[in-house]
AAA family ATPase (Roseobacter sinensis), 291 residues
Amino acid sequence: MVAELYTSFFGFSERPFTLLPDPDFLFWSDSHKRAYSVLEYGLATRAPLTVVTGEIGAGKTTLVQHLLSTLDDDVTIGLISNAQGGRGDLLRWVLYALSIEAMAQDDYITLFRRFQEFVLDEYAKGRHVVLVIDEAQNLSVEALEELRMLTNINSNKDELLQLILVGQPELRDMIASPYLVQFSQRVTATYHLQPLDLKQTKAYIQHRLIHVGGTGNEMSSYAIKSIYEESGGVPRLINKYCDLAFVYAAASEKRIVGIDQVRELVDDGIFVKIQPDSTLVLENPIFKVAE
């Protein structure tokens, strides 16, 4: 594959700019440090609800994965990646995430009792339960209120259950809604993850290059500036542009990725972009929208 050929051409141990979240490549910008501190604070204080938001591709899931890898053995983790549905469906997602049996014929009361018994049993064993809901902006107002009701299990001085919600900026707007006043009052800590600035974008790119055995200087400053302008400092978009820029450079046998390669891939129009009016535009001319 061409992408694999460029790793060989540049002497990298692996592709430095994949799109999958990978804690091994985690770059600690100031904003990522603050977001992670909020997550740690929520866990340390047994906060009922902790919320971290950010744009698509900002690195939220990578932070969560890193956090989960550092937790002590006395924490029982349930991870829900993309829950959807109405009342009762969310509870089934929760039970599934915690490997709690749920029969198709079980009603809501039965499911809730089973969940409550599990949380209390874990507490009796000296453990507490943490539920992490990724892509939480997909939840309805009713589902968020249902999550709040789950925290009612924390009726004594000890917190038995913690919820960490991670999502796109719409989640922050939902929580600020007058329909979720009680929910927002349960939120102990919240943080919105910001995109990288130009200086951080350069450090981010160099960090990933060095991580795979490069020098960090395989891309020119002009190319980095162009990628920053095209990506808006969003890590996932930076990865997309960098990955293809290295493909273009290897194909031209260029040892340093220059602005010409970035301009070329931009001019080729191979990325799908969203126009300001939210209309989906397929930039590559080989794609046609059926009339």
